[in-house]
Amino acid sequence: MIQKLLFSVSNIFKKLAIIIVLFFSVGLNTFYPQTLNTPKENQGSIIDKLKIEFQKRNPNIALVRIVDMRPALTEIPKYLVLGWGIRADRDFKGRSEDELFGLFLVDESLDKVEKVMDFIPSPRWLDTEMRITSVDATRAVIKGKGETYGGILLQREYIMYNYGRISPIVSRK
Hints:
single chain; 173 residues; alpha+beta; 4-stranded antiparallel sheet
């Protein structure tokens, strides 16, 4: 009697498991179609879009990362994104442009690079820490310092005007 009861309970759990698997494999398309049908213009991450911009400047750039991001204090919400790109093998081959930092103005949804602000070749190969140090309504400042030996390697300032458009005004070491 107990064996029959255990056998029937076991069969019920097996059937329930099959129903759950079928529900999730077929049912998600019915309940959540927006996750499956994304428009082509929105495909790709912000990293992919930054990589395209880096490769326009230098086709050798293969690895791209975001190293800093700050909201731009503009009437239309945007972000300043500081990216880093380097060649795939990370070996220095005499071109400092094979390791680049890039400053970009990106829309609020992090979906579109609106403007490439600047590209900065690394002052010291694989030994530079670059950060956005300040952003306010009138200007943005980025600084690069040496990771191993310290010291400020560069500072650049950008003035903000006309609804969030940015241009470089000062570059110094």
